[in-house]
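Long-time lurker. I teach an intro course on protein structure, and each term I like to show students one example going from raw sequence to a predicted 3D structure in token notation. This year I'd like something fresh instead of my usual example. Would anyone be willing to generate the tokens for the chain below so I can use it in lecture? Attribution to the forum is fine with me.
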Amino acid sequence: MRIAVLGGGAGGAAATAELTLAGHGVSFWARSPATLEPFIKNDGIGYAGVLGDGRVRPEVMTTDLPTAIADVDVAVVTLPTFSHASVASAMASAGWPSEKLVILNPGHTGGALEFSAAFAAEGRAAPPVVEFSTLTYVARKLSPDRVTVTGRAKQVRSASLRGNGAHLEIASALFPGAAPVGDVLASGMCNVNMVLHAPGAVLGMAWVEATEGGFTFYVDGMTQGVARVMKDLDAERLAVGEAFGHRLPNLIEEMRFIGTVEAGVEDLSDYRAAISGGVANSRIMAPNSLEHRYYREDFGHGLLPFRELAAIAGVPVPTADALYHLASSATGTDYRDGGRTARAMGIAGLSREELKRKVNET
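-- Reply from a regular --
Happy to contribute to a lecture. Here you go:
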């Protein structure tokens, strides 16, 4: 299969390595020439960790989007979620066919809805979109031409918008851990990052600024107080999911499903022990500033769409509201400006039942 991987960060590099190793023809696209240049200079993408150790050379490496998506079967978008709307518009303008599949790896909360709305705003029928609840890798680019993959998700939740079972089968064939759930509301509510990152990002802000991220986020930063707030936020997530007809696992069970909490963990109520004991995340450092993606992405494209969905569901979410407003105040950011609002997702003014019908249209 010919696949365009859109995104030159750690996720895109990891996906390109894995898909190329699996025998697919891959076009690798990055927005920035500075990001792409080290890969071109060193004849491909170096990889280390759970995928093995080596270097792959994609069939195409380019910053030109029309070139990247020409004659491919599937596009895999690995960009940060705050780039979904802009890449959707660019793909529509570049002529992406409305019948060809787009996979958002990850989609997080509301990804497929926002991507489809932005694509349609260009006057084109939106393509089928499969979104994953989280990225299929724990990966970092420790050097400009090489990705280190410390963990590969055992499973992530997947769902399609304007797609069908065949599209989910393609996504599962490319990324074997993709496990289908009922609809994109369910997959979006399984976005662990909005629960896992937001409490520590807010409650650890002073330490982030004072040390420039000089502590491990999931171990040093996972105090009992952070864990209690996280547990309250998770309870709100489960309540919103239930209002849309989905009984979801709690955060610890979901992370065990992914593989970032150890399989032997039995106490699903001890958030601190389970998260700090996860090997895949144990060495990940905290954000080095309030410009980090844990602030840029997980509020404007995590808690914001979650709060919008909660409002449609009629479920109060005071912990999410408090974290959102504190992050906005501390960072000086209006997350609604360019964020994943109900309008951006194309669901403004819908009732709960209307939204449920919308996400199940084919």
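Some talking points for your students: The chain has two domains: 2-184, 192-359. The mean pLDDT is 96.
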